[in-house]
Amino acid sequence: MLENYFAQIKRKFGHDSTEATFYPVLESLVAQVAKAKGILNLGITAQPKRGAAGIPDFTVRRGKELIGYIEAKDIGSKLEELEDSDQIEKYKKEFENFIFTNYFDFWLWRRSENKWVMKVAASVAPIIPLKNGQEPGIQKEIELLNLLETFFHFSTPERKTAKSLAIELAIKAKLIPEHIVEELNNDIETPIDQIYRAFKQFLIPDLS
Prior knowledge:
Elements: H1 2-12, H2 23-36, E1 42-46, E2 58-62, E3 65-72, H3 79-82, H4 86-94, E4 97-101, E5 105-110, E6 115-121, E7 123-124, H5 127-131, E8 137-138, H6 141-152, H7 162-173, H8 176-185, H9 191-202
Parallel strand pairs: 3-4
Antiparallel strand pairs: 1-2, 2-3, 4-5, 5-6, 7-8
Helix pairs in contact: 1-2
């Protein structure tokens, strides 16, 4: 499975490639592993880039149930140098289950344990082979499959009280403001623009 994954990475790798270039490759790997592990009704949605503190690059669901998120950085990025960034710190505080990756290293975070519960390096020195037109060497394939399976089997805790539901919704709501501001400041007409104008017209004339 990893052999095919790295072969696709190699085909897409080039001087003008970005982290988004490899989204389909990562999505395919996740879907293949889920199928191999008997995870049914898995849905993977790639998110557009939304700025430094936006929603992670992938949302993963089992049917309608949210499993978690995947945040991908460009090949060659060092996760150790990025894990304390404002973006990742925010994700660690707000997401119970998410994967942080540079397409070769995969880290799994659990908020309930407040730590990276698994870290797997699926290749040795991946950049050097790619720059030489070669495929990276594979290692720890079983460990990576186990990491993804652990990610898949997460279940959102049941919210049994109004307070626990309110807390969970508040955590999710913290992600919204950056997206709204971005939508209102671009030159594209979106439903957010229509809602904004309606609020100004009928409810709050001085709304900013």
